[in-house]
Write a structure and sequence with these properties.
The structure holds 2 protein chains of 2 kinds. By secondary structure, chain A is an alpha/beta fold. Chain A is built from 10 helices and 12 strands. Chain A has a single domain, classed as Rossmann fold (3-Layer(aba) Sandwich), CATH 3.40.50. Chain A has a 6-stranded mixed sheet with strand order 6-7-8-3-9-10, sandwiched between helices. In chain A, strands 2-1-4-5 form a 4-stranded antiparallel sheet, covered by helices on one side. In chain A, strands 11-12 form a two-stranded antiparallel ribbon. The longest helix of chain B is centred in the first third of the chain and has 35 residues. Classes of the chains: A alpha/beta, B mainly alpha.
């Protein structure tokens, strides 16, 4: 059963210029979909349309078969959790308070948090090893720990699907892999994930489906091994890339040189 | 009652003694100040006289002097209740606005309510000069100013928060200019001092019925904000995150703005413009109980009420002629805030 389905979607901030168009995508239970593409190609805009933070110009998004146009924000939030990129804190809420926010879609307008909500939030904290930090201001944590706080919040939200906007950016080498590991584990528990990324390598590690976005459209979509190819990456990013199998069941992408550089070299020779 | 409930919940979450003592003090402080304030004033009353006078309402058989009854019930009570209401109202509105606009520098008049109310009062003083009309006019023009700000600010789609704060500043200075115009046109011997005095803020001449009327919107607004206070946490994380957590941010923000405007306009209509309270009490409360609005709002209510009551007591005892409370709030509040700022090193923000 498809959890999420995007049909012929397009979006524009202004009437004339489409940010993206003709986007089709299906996400099944346990799928991890990675959307790659150069800066400014519309990845973030696209995923914001999936949980109605923005509204499509044409086409439709279906959650569990229902068009999200007819679904209110609260019900969407019960189905889809979202971790934005580049959170700017205003107040130094405690880690527990941040995670408790995930309970909002399960409460009525004037309802306040109950025992059950605290229990769920505390379990989410334990799951990510944050329980000891629960009374600390989340603003004082490291980038990696903050990312985990947002993961805990999204788990307390109990959705069926996660949307992650560049979950590995701003993280160090180790935390990037730890985050991808977290994503894989959540997928094994049955959560579907859609994420954007700047690293084709990361798609090899955690995704079973990759889409490359270029010139407002999906240039290619499918299994990582089929989509992340030298030709596709050259077209998408304008650079020459070598894809190397390093053993351990892992492939990596090595950027070699820009296409312009290559032209100069071939011109000289 | 609800403050007690929140205290209990807080205790059950973390049973730490500092939290416990801070909460106890926050609840007891306004109650103690309330009773002490009856003893302060030019006509000396003993605690026994005050207690007797109060009980005489319930047990008419008690013998009390007519003077004491008038002073307690007609002069001191409305003033004390007004200080509590206005202090709590401005502080809660300040805290709610700071959360809603994701900005700790915001005060309740950010959307122009005080400037609008000031204009309403100035016009009423200029052309009518009846207290009740002045109050009603201040209340209505305060609401008008915020409505204008909201409509203009909301039309700026790309950034509604910034749009609203900026148009609030513009509307504020527009009404500020209109107030100046009223002052300029006013008769300098009769009307002008009245306008100036109103703008300084004072609760020295309120009576019971005024306080009662103003208390209705104030209590209504505070109750709704109180019920929604946890949601302010989420709104303070930014629109996009709040929406992804299922909050209809436009609707929630509108409700909060309505409540804050209602209570601020009602408070200002009986007290005139009292600055500083709405900005600084939320900060002091944050130092004491942290930024979580579940605890912050009850704390601002207790602290705001206590603070303004204390300042009003000072204002009626410090000099032979009364010092307008609007002047004293900053004179007393600013040094105290600076002291806390230095001590806390701004850690709570």
């Amino acid at each position: 059963m498809n959890i999420l389905e995007v049909k012929d979607a397009s979006f524009a901030y202004e009437e004339t210029k489409n940010i993206f168009e003709d986007i089709n995508l299906t996400v099944a239970e346990g799928d991890v979909v990675c959307i790659l593409g150069p800066n400014g190609c519309g990845k973030t805009t696209l995923i914001k349309c999936l949980n109605k933070l923005l509204e499509l110009k044409e086409g439709a998004v279906y959650i569990n078969g229902k068009n999200i146009k007819a679904v209110d924000q609260r019900e969407i939030a019960r189905n889809i959790g979202y971790i934005p990129q580049g959170h700017v804190p205003t107040f130094a809420f405690s880690v527990l308070d941040v995670v408790l926010m995930g309970r909002a879609p399960h409460l009525d307008f004037f309802e306040t948090l109950g025992k059950k909500d605290y229990k769920i939030a505390e379990n989410a904290l334990k799951k990510f090893g944050l329980y000891e930090l629960r009374d600390k201001p989340y603003t004082t944590l490291s980038g990696g720990e903050q990312q985990l706080v947002f993961f805990a919040r999204v788990i307390a939200q109990e959705p069926h699907m996660l949307i992650l906007d560049e979950p590995t950016s701003h993280l160090d080498f180790g935390n990037q892999l730890k985050t991808l590991d977290t994503i894989s584990k959540l997928a094994e528990d049955g959560l579907s994930v859609i994420m954007t990324s700047h690293y084709p390598d990361h798609a090899f590690i955690s995704s079973n489906k990759v889409a490359i976005m270029k010139d407002h459209k999906f240039m290619d979509m499918g299994k990582p091994d089929d989509v992340i190819t030298r030709e596709n990456l050259e077209k998408a990013y304008g650079i020459h890339v070598e894809i190397v199998d390093v053993g351990y069941n892992r492939k990596i992408c090595v950027p070699l040189r820009t296409v312009e550089e290559t032209e100069i070299i071939s011109f000289k020779s | 009652m609800s403050a007690l409930k929140s205290l209990k919940r807080r205790l059950s979450v973390k049973g730490n003694t500092r939290t416990w003592s801070v909460n106890t003090i926050l609840i007891i402080l306004p109650v103690v100040l309330f009773f002490l304030s009856f003893l302060i004033g030019r006509y000396p009353l003993t605690p026994v006289e005050v207690v007797m006078t109060i009980f005489a309402k319930i047990f008419p058989s008690l013998q009390v002097s007519a003077t004491a009854t008038t002073i307690v019930w007609e002069i001191r009570l409305p003033r004390i209740v007004a200080a509590i209401l206005v202090g709590a109202a401005l502080s809660v509105a300040g805290a709610a606005f700071q959360g809603t606009f994701k900005n700790p520098l915001v005060s309740p008049d950010i959307l122009g309510v005080s400037a609008g109310a000031g204009f309403g009062a100035a016009v009423a003083i200029l052309f009518v000069g009846v207290t009740l009309i002045t109050q009603v006019s201040a209340f209505i023009w305060g609401m008008v100013a915020v409505t204008l700000t909201y409509i203009i600010g909301r039309s700026i789609k790309s950034s509604p928060i910034l749009g609203m704060v900026l148009s609030g500043m513009a509307i504020g200075s527009l009404f500020g200019a209109l107030v100046s115009l009223c002052k300029y046109m006013a008769d300098p011997f009769e009307k002008l001092p009245q306008i100036v005095y109103w703008l300084m803020g004072s609760i020295s001449s309120v009576d019971n019925s005024e306080v009662f009327i103003a208390s209705i919107p104030i209590i209504l607004g505070i109750t709704i904000l109180f019920l929604l206070r946890w949601r302010l946490n989420i709104l303070a994380m930014g629109d996009e995150e709040a929406q992804s957590l299922g909050i209809e941010t436009q609707k929630l923000r509108l409700i909060i703005i309505c409540c804050c405007t209602l209570i601020t306009a009602a408070a200002v209509s009986i007290s005139g413009i009292i600055g500083w309270v709405g900005l600084v009490i939320p900060h002091i409360s944050r130092i004491l109980v942290g930024p979580d609005h579940k605890n912050l709002l009850p704390a601002t209510i207790c602290l705001g009420a206590s603070f303004l009551l204390l300042v009003d007591n000072v204002s009626r005892t410090i000099l032979i002629t009364e010092v307008p409370i609007g002047i004293l709030t900053a004179l007393i509040g600013a040094p105290f805030f600076l002291y806390l700022l230095r001590r806390g090193q701004g850690k709570w923000v």
